[in-house]
Structures are given as structure tokens and as C-alpha cells.
Amino acid sequence: MNTYDGAAEPADLAPLPNESDGQAAPPVMPLAELHLHIEGTLEPGLIFALAERNGIELPYADLDELRARYEFTDLQSFLDLYYANMAVLRTEADFADMTRAYLRRAAAAGVRHAEIMLDPQAHLSRGVSLETCVNGVASVLASSQDEFGISTLLVAAFLRDLSEESALEVLEALLAMNAPIAGIGLDSAEVGNPPAKFERLFARAGEAGLRKIAHAGEEGPPSYIIEALDVLGVERVDHGIRCMEDPELVERLVADRVPLTVCPLSNVRLRAVDKLADHPLPAMLAAGLNVCVNSDDPAYFGGYVDDNFAQLESVLGLSEFDRVRLAANSISSSFASDERKAELLAELSG
Ligand code: ADE
Ligand code: ZN
């Protein structure tokens, strides 16, 4: 049932699911989710529950009023709500509950390995400590394989609309506390905040032995993808869909098998593409790009990774062959151990 009263849906998308009835088809293929912001899994029901637990008054009278805000015109209009809703995350238990809810839902979607971004600066700026947010998420990730059958890695994502100094300070604090992070990412408002702004941050992360990813080419131009590769040395590009405007770049990405973590429902909801039927994913696959499908901020964009696949199938007629290829790409593009990748690839082909 669509409870998003009055919010016009992009033409070819199914209604945003209510989290209580949002289960898509039964578990399908094993896959890896490589582009997921844990704060973007905060479902409206959990926002209200945490607000009550923490004695926080929300600026929405009820769930319907909150859901009516899930109508975005661009990335910034989403980010405004995404950051505002984080106000309910105060304690380790809040971060842990959010993480557990994601893993439970992801397991049902077939996710067997997840690389999860956390935005520490968005919590520090609200007076929530690094220990609280990192330990809250990490405490659940530590047992995710046993509890949910999902191996996990944590990535600290830095807000590109803040200064590089702020990012460097937070990275040093994460390193000093021995935070269990496997890598760093770059997210938030893209246009006007090119990757090169964070050259020293990514150099420092490299020295510390961390993996490197960055959002690029979501709203920003193809040159941001090139900068992320050449200046930051990223191993994977989040989104990257605007590479299709630069044939030379596409050739390079294909030749180097650079993974692009594409998020189709996100791109439609944030109007990076007009409608799912216009999404470049089929062209990206046809070009031989190393793409995989992810949910980005599933609580905000109308679905988890299985919902993304289901809508790609129904709107774009994605074939079984391409589904398996996308799942295989997700596993091989992950930062999981070679052993874990082999195990999941064998499961996929078996
Ligand atoms: N933070 C959370 N979701 C994001 C997205 N899709 N792009 C940039 N920053 C984000
Ligand atoms: Zn993202």
C-alpha cells in the first residue's frame, strides 16, 4: 500500500513500500551490497521509535506526515531530510538497532556481503561521539556473519561539503581509537566539491592501509570521476553514471575494470535520471562496464537491493544473464577476502 499521500511518484516506479510490507520477492541470488549508507536505512517507523525512546520531539505529527516529505528534487533536497532525521540517533543502542534492522532486511534480499558507509561527521556535529556511532554500528557488524550470514566491512565516509581539515581531524581520531574501518569514502553534496579537495585525506588513508572509494559522477560531471581515480586513487566509484557522457572515460573504465556501484532507484528518486526506463544501466552493461546494483539509502528511495532488481526487471526487462552478471560483479568488486569471494561466487554459480 502506498502511504505517501500526495507525493507524485516518478512515472514508472512502483509506489514507495511501507517498511512493514516492503518485503520483495523471496531471497534470490547471493550478492554483495557495496554502496549503502547505514543512516539511509533509518526507516520512518524506527525514526519515531527512537525519537520516543530518546525523548526527542519530531517536527512531524505522524508517520504519514514524515513520509510525505520523501519527495526529492535533487541530491541536496534528500540530504536535508537525511541529516535532519539523524537527530534521533543518540546512543550506541540506537546505532546498533538501525544496523541490525538493515542486516535483517538485507539478508532477506540475498545480501551475503555488505560494505557499509557511516558518516561520522554528521554525528560529531550533533554532539554524538565517534565512540558512540562507530561502536554502535561495529558491535552489530562483529556478529553479522553468524547472525545474518552477511560478512561486513565498515567504511568511514567523509562529507565533501565540509573542509578537508575537518575530514583529516576525524580520520586521525578514527585511527587513534583503532576504529574497525576497512576504508574511507566521500559523500554528500557533490557539485562544487570536487574530489581533488580531498587529496591529502586520501593520501593519509592510503598510508594507513585503508581502502579508498568515492562518490563521483552522481550529479557531478565525468571529470570528477577522472579526478577521483587520478588524484585520490580510488579503487571503486560510487554511482559513476555520468561517465556515459565521456566515451574516452568509458573506454578507460572498461579497460581497467573499475567497479561502479550503481543505485538505480536512488538515481530516479534524486532525479539524476527522469525515470527508470531512462536509466543508463543497460547501456553501461552493454559497454562492458563493471557495474553492480545497490540500494544507497533504501529507507528513502523506495527499496532495498532486491527491490532495485525487481524494478529493473519489470521496467527494463533485465535478463537472468545480466542479473547474474551484476551479482558476480558485486562480489568480485568487493573488499572481501579472496576466500570469501570464491565462496560467494561458487554459491552464485551453483
Ligand atoms: N549520502 C547519503 N546518500 C548519498 C548519496 N546518494 N549521494 C551523496 N551523498 C550521500
Ligand atoms: Zn551513496
Which structural traits does this protein have?
alpha/beta; globular; binds adenine; about 350 residues; 8-stranded parallel β-sheet; about 45% helix
Describe the protein's architecture and organization.
It contains 17 helices and eight strands. It has helices spanning 44-53, 63-67, 75-85, 92-108, 120-124, 130-141, 144-148, 164-176, 199-207, 222-230, 247-255, 264-269, 281-287, 298-301, 305-316, 320-332, 338-349; strands at residues 31-37, 111-118, 151-159, 183-187, 211-216, 236-239, 259-262, 290-293. The longest helix has 17 residues, at 92-108. The radius of gyration is 19 Å and the shape is globular. Adenine binds at residues 37, 40, 75, 82, 187-188, 215, 218, 266, 296-297.
- Give the ordered list of helices and strands: EHHHHEHHHEHEHEHEHEHHEHHHH
Strand order of the largest sheet: 1-2-3-4-5-6-7-8
**Small molecules bound:** adenine, zinc ion
Estimate the global geometry from the Cα principal axes. globular
Strand content: 5-15%
**What is the CATH homologous superfamily assignment?**
Metal-dependent hydrolases
Q: Which residue ranges are poorly predicted, with pLDDT under 50 across at least 5 consecutive positions?
A: 1-10, 16-27
How many structural units, i.e. domains? 1
Number of strands: 8
Gyration radius from CA atoms, angstroms: 19 Å
Please tell me the overall pLDDT. Answer: 94
Q: What is the CATH architecture term?
A: Alpha-Beta Barrel
Largest sheet: 8 strands, parallel
Distance between the termini: 36 Å
Question: Approximately how much helix is present in the residues?
Answer: 40-55%
CATH class: Alpha Beta
* Count of discrete alpha- or pi-helical segments spanning 4 or more residues: 17
CATH topology tier name: TIM Barrel
Helix/strand-derived category reads alpha/beta
